[in-house]
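During the second half of the funding period, the structural biology subgroup turned its attention to how the target accommodates small molecules. The most pressing case was inosinic acid, which had performed well in the primary screen but for which no bound structure existed. We therefore specified the complex as follows and requested a full 3D prediction, including the ligand pose.
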Amino acid sequence: MDRDVDRILIPRERIAERVRELADEIGRTYAADMNGGLTLVTILSGSLIFLADLIRCLPLRMKIGLITVSSYKGTTAGKVSILQQLNTNVTGRHVLLIDDILDTGGTLRLVRDQLSTAGPRSIRTCVLLRKPSKAPADVPADFVGFDIEDVFVVGYGLDFNDHYRNLPDIAVLKPEVYAGER
Ligand code: IMP
Ligand code: MG
């Protein structure tokens, strides 16, 4: 796996530090109003490591909801579809949507629109990464870990064709890896 890495964009220590800062920001935001309860809705599979680290820094009473969405084939953004529906009811609850990366915004837009039909008390979004050169204005993120350049990254949950999620750092792969099918 390591020999496929071209360069490390964000090392694991920096991720851990920023996740703790994000948890502090989120904690302060919800401290003011937790009426109705809080559900963290996680967009699988890319967000699972981020979620696991974030919630252990977040000493709030919460439920976890899971929804599975697919959009990318290789490094190309495709049509977003929901593979598995949300497994919990968010009516009247505060929802914090968690995604690994805000790229073209198609994923967050779809999930947000769908959740809002359930009548939650509020919806906020938290992404570990954002590509500001592509993220559209109508899909804002309330909490952002890192703004990154427009490169295809893997690791810390993010995949290329479902591999490399277990890399502890966020990295860019060698061009020949993206070119070939693994
Ligand atoms: P969007 O719908 O274009 O905003 O893309 C969001 C989804 O595409 C994310 O949840 C990721 O799963 C995937 N994605 C976007 N950019 C990357 C990347 O650089 N590496 C890996 N996955 C990505
Ligand atoms: Mg994903």
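Two results from this model are relevant to the next phase. Residues 6 and 174 are 5 Å apart (CA to CA). The two ends are 11 Å apart (CA to CA).
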